[in-house]
């Protein structure tokens, strides 16, 4: 058998040809196949061309294997923030041979058991588990009411209707968000009015909101991007109903107050990538009895139990099933341990990416509690040596999954054509060309995050050489 071997040293990289695979390469490949990781397996001969570690890489033409993990999560032991710096000699760390997913859900045996128990109970639609989720989330969020619904989008839609948004109204919101935030305004018959964002955290700029308020303004819909809360006090001081898009902010707090306990309504998502993930689902938290009653009436086509039901308003089919609620309940039990992992991963990124010209994370406000939902960096083409899109493709070539949060909504086809007179939003538009979200999940190990760090540093070195 013949094989090309790639070695890396401090002086660069080289390839050598061998009539048979080196023993170390065979053992290392077998270890990776069995363990699905890049942990050391003892195949580290000293004095080899590979530098200090000496481990050789399989030829790049080797077939890619699945990086799917078993449905368990290995948690690091609680302790101080990470202080190790394994990035001094990046050429000594081996590139991945399996793809690192961007944000896989951390689903374990507890969630599987909860779903199985629910299926065996015979209660698949909205039932006792959905009610229990509402009770427990209300306690967690310090909210008077929590209503479980079919999705985060449904939560936003029903909340806007509940505070009185209707045809001809205007709702001020952020352009740096998922399109659903603006879509639900349209579904209410209202008009989205996009406010530019702050350059630091890409949340809605409260200093710009007052100039956008008109006699048609019915509500303000701030977005808590990536887990960093928007500045709520000046927005609420305007005296208009405030509905928060808190899809990224289940664990967030604003100046010591939990998101979910502050505004007229806070809307959360239970989507597969969220910090509390059930696959699908949403929650509305509110302290207003009238808002809770309105959403309770609208989330189903009828109100009442058994055969004696009534309909007091045209309702939707927006209820949450017990199967999904069962998953969310387990995820809620694990939220603190998952938060510890996310904090550790943020620390690894902060340390590993420090000093890279043209690459910087979004600013986090120490006065608030950040949910650590996304680790977003901005890539300045002028100083990073290449555009965000070029970096994203280069990371994909390194088998590192990434995403973009977000493309500005007002530049998407529907809104661009429907509202051609939309004024420029320079901060949002520039950010839309620069933002890149890196892998982050309790399902990832420290080595997974270090792989992403190393890959980004290699790419950066290549583009800035």
General description of the model:
- The chain has 465 residues and is of the alpha/beta class.
- The protein has a domain at 109-333: 3-Layer(aba) Sandwich (Aspartate Aminotransferase, domain 2), CATH 3.40.640.
- Helices cover 32% and strands 13% of the residues.
- The chain has 14 helices and 14 strands.
- It has helices spanning 23-35, 109-121, 128-141, 152-162, 180-187, 232-236, 289-298, 322-333, 335-353, 381-384, 388-397, 413-418, 426-432, 446-464, and strands spanning 3-9, 12-18, 145-149, 170-173, 191-194, 217-221, 243-245, 253-254, 257-258, 265-269, 282-286, 359-361, 375-379, 435-438.
- The chain has a four-stranded mixed β-sheet, with helices on both faces. The protein has a three-stranded parallel β-sheet with strand order 5-4-6, with helices on one face.
- A hairpin with a 2-residue loop joins strand 1 (3-9) and strand 2 (12-18).
- Helix 4 (152-162) crosses helix 5 (180-187) and helix 4 (152-162) packs across helix 7.
- The protein starts with a strand and ends with a helix.
- The relative contact order is 0.14.
- The model is unreliable at 1-92 (pLDDT under 50).
Element-level helix/strand string: EEHHHEHEHEEHEEEEEHHHEEHHHHEH
- Helix share, percent: 25-40%
Based on CA inertia axes, which overall geometry fits? globular
Radius of gyration: 25 Å
CATH topology of the domain at 109-333: Aspartate Aminotransferase, domain 2
**Distance N to C terminus:** 37 Å
Number of helices: 14
CATH architecture of the domain at 109-333: 3-Layer(aba) Sandwich
Low-pLDDT segments, ≥5 res: 1-92
Q: What fraction strand?
A: 5-15%
Say how many strands there are: 14
The CATH homology group name of the domain at 109-333 = Type I PLP-dependent aspartate aminotransferase-like (Major domain)
Category from helices, strands and their pairing:
alpha/beta
């Amino acid at each position: 058998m013949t094989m090309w071997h790639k070695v890396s040293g401090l002086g660069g990289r080289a390839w050598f040809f061998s009539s048979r695979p080196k023993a170390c390469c065979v053992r290392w490949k077998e270890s990776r196949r069995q363990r699905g990781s890049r942990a050391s397996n003892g195949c580290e001969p000293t004095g080899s061309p590979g530098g200090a570690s000496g481990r050789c890489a399989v030829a790049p033409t080797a077939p890619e294997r699945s990086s799917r993990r078993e449905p368990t999560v290995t948690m690091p032991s609680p302790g101080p923030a990470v202080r190790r710096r394994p990035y001094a000699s990046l050429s000594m760390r081996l590139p991945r041979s399996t793809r690192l997913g961007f944000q896989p859900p951390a689903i374990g045996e507890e969630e599987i058991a909860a779903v199985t128990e629910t299926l065996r109970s015979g209660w698949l639609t909205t039932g006792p588990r959905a009610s229990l989720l509402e009770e427990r989330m209300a306690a967690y969020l310090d909210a008077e009411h929590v209503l479980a619904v079919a999705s985060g989008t449904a939560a936003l839609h029903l909340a806007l209707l509940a505070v009185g948004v209707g045809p001809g109204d205007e709702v001020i919101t952020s352009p740096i968000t998922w399109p659903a935030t603006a879509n639900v305004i349209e579904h209410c018959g209202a008009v989205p009015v996009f406010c530019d964002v702050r350059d630091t955290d890409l949340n809605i700029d409260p200093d710009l909101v007052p100039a956008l308020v008109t006699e048609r303004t019915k509500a303000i819909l701030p977005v808590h991007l990536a887990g960093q809360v928007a500045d709520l006090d000046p927005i609420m001081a305007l005296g208009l109903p405030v509905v928060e898009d808190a899809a990224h902010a289940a664990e967030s707090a604003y100046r010591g107050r939990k998101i979910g306990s502050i505004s007229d309504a806070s809307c959360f998502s239970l989507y597969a990538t969220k910090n509390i993930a059930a696959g699908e689902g949403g929650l509305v938290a509110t302290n207003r009895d009238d808002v809770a009653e309105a959403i309770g009436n609208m989330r189903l086509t009828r109100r009442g139990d058994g055969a004696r039901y009534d309909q007091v308003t045209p309702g939707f089919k927006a209820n949450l099933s017990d199967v999904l609620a069962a998953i969310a309940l387990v995820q809620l039990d694990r939220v603190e341990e998952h938060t510890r992992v996310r904090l550790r991963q943020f620390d690894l990124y902060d340390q590993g990416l420090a000093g890279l010209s043209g690459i910087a994370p979004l600013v986090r406000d120490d006065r608030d509690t950040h949910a650590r939902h996304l680790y977003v960096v901005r890539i300045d083409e002028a100083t990073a040596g290449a555009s965000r899109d070029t970096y994203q493709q280069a990371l994909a070539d390194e088998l590192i999954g990434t995403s973009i949060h977000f493309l500005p909504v007002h530049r998407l086809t529907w809104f661009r054509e429907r509202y051609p007179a939309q004024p420029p939003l320079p901060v949002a538009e520039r950010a839309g060309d620069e933002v890149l979200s890196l892998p982050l999940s309790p399902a990832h190990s420290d080595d997974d995050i270090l792989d992403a760090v190393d890959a980004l540093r290699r790419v950066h070195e290549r583009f800035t050489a």
